[in-house]
Amino acid sequence: MTVVTINQPFWIKQAVFKNRLVKSAMSEAMADKNHLPTDKLCTLYEAWAKGGSGLVITGNVMVDAKALGEPGNVVLDSADHLAEFQTWAEAGTKHNTQLWMQINHPGKQVIKGVAEEAVAPSAVPFEPALQRFFPMCRALEESEILEIIRKFARTAELAKQAGFTGIQIHAAHGYLISQFLSPRHNERTDQWGGPIENRFRFLREIYTAAREKTGPDFPIGVKINSSDFMKAGFSEEESRYVIGELDRLGVDLIEISGGTYERPEMTGKGVRASTAEREAYFLEYAEALKQHADVPLIVTGGFRTLHGMNEALQKHATDFIGLARPLAVYPDYANQLLLGRASDFSIKSIKTGIGFIDSKGILELTWYAQQLHRLGSGGRTKPSFSPLLSLGLTVWKNGKGVLEQRRA
Ligand SMILES: Cc1cc2nc3c(=O)[nH]c(=O)nc-3n(C[C@H](O)[C@H](O)[C@H](O)COP(=O)(O)O)c2cc1C
After folding, report:
1. Which residue intervals define the domain NADH:flavin oxidoreductase/NADH oxidase N-terminal in the entry (predicted)?
2. How far is the CA of 60 from the centre of ligand 1 (A)?
3. CA 171 – CA 246 distance, rounded (Å)
């Protein structure tokens, strides 16, 4: 039997991935006031390209300037400033790195004050505990749905023109596409709601339109939830159906994650203790999926040891290993893993001891984002950075409202 390890290359169409490690999307919040990529962002991606991953996926880039998810989001919705995106693509593709742009629309997951309004498939509010952070959303008209599909396709086309070697459509984590897929958030009675075949239509149309604009050879991936872990939400069975259809349509790579703002399972919160103890939260789901779907997979969330990564590849539960937080703290971690020199990464809890702050889990995101900003400024990360200092710095720079303005 062939031994598969993280060091082996992989091919998708004409694209060569020099190994099986993927830097998963992390929202950088580093755009300038016009939502364009900055020098800081390019420095960060140069560090990741040097860091050894075969594939680097950008943090979510918004397809519409009127639909931002959080402050500092990059937006790519016109060709007016393609040069800034070309510079970003050049930085991130150094060292034969594949660089894919993750493209997204937040739907109702818009932090209060960031955009004028929030839209969704249906006007379904957040759970009461989250309602004060998000404006109430309104349901999209059909003409608006068609316009958003066109915007996704346009961003895909522009990403290709700028030199990104692929795109990833963000259909996970409770954003707009994920809201369409979920029966809990999508109560529509027209062709966009109801049975899963209809709830899938929005994603299917986005993929088809992006494919038309980018041609048959351009790699297109989709990040999707194994489930959203909510009562009456998007289930594993529905996720399997959607992935099967995407496979049939010709999607090149699926990344498996899980959860939403209301259930942040993507970072391991709320997963069963037995799952949290095992490496990689969604591996069991992926392993079962592999029996039915041929499309290549990335599994992301919780990978921390070289042994765990190689074992997952060896048992064909996944084709790629997705890593986010380890690469925020150690941008060179992929190289160290490939050389067999990396220590196991342990995610320490980012906690201040202040109950109401820690319970939100938002500081964790700002702590990691601060590490990204250190890298973007050309500095080194600070793995020992105190959560309390991180909190102080955040509040000093942005006011206390900022703790309500981060999301994964
Ligand atoms: C600061 C931060 C920002 C994130 N932003 C995004 C994002 O823009 N898009 C996305 O799909 N996932 C995002 N994620 C989730 C990660 O891609 C990944 O799914 C999650 O962190 C689990 O992987 P890990 O255990 O290796 O960190 C973010 C995570 C963090 C920590």
Report:
1. 8-341
2. 10
3. 12
SS3 321: strand
Mind giving me the DSSP string for 86-151?
A: HHHHHHHTGGG-EEEEEEE--TT---TTTSS-EEESS-PPPPGGGGGGSPPEEEPPHHHHHHHHHH
Alpha carbon of 321 to ligand 1 centroid (Å) = 13
CATH topology for 14-347 is TIM Barrel (3.20.20)
Distance CA 61, CA 77 (A): 10
Distance between first and last Cα of the chain: 39
Ligand 1 pocket test target in 325, 367, 381 with most atoms within 8 Å of CB = 325
Q: Domain-by-domain residue ranges, the chain? A: 14-347, 348-408
60 C-beta closer than 6 A to ligand 1: yes
pLDDT value of residue 399:
59
Nearest CA to ligand 1 atom 15: 408
Report the amino acid identity of residue 170.
Answer: H
| pLDDT band at residue 27 using 50, 70 and 90 as cut-offs | very high
For ligand 1, whether the C-beta of 327 sits within 6 Å is no
Which of 169, 266, 350, 381 has most ligand 1 atoms within 8 Å of its beta carbon, as the pocket-test mutant? 266
CB atoms within 10 A of CB 348: 11
The residues, ordered by sequence, that sit 6+ positions from 341 with a Cβ below 8 Å of its Cβ are: none
Higher pLDDT residue, 151 or 347? 151
Tens digits of per-residue pLDDT, 139-152?
Answer: 999 999 999 999 99
Dist. CA 225 → ligand 1 center (Å): 13
Are 137 and 119 a contacting pair, CB within 8 Å? yes
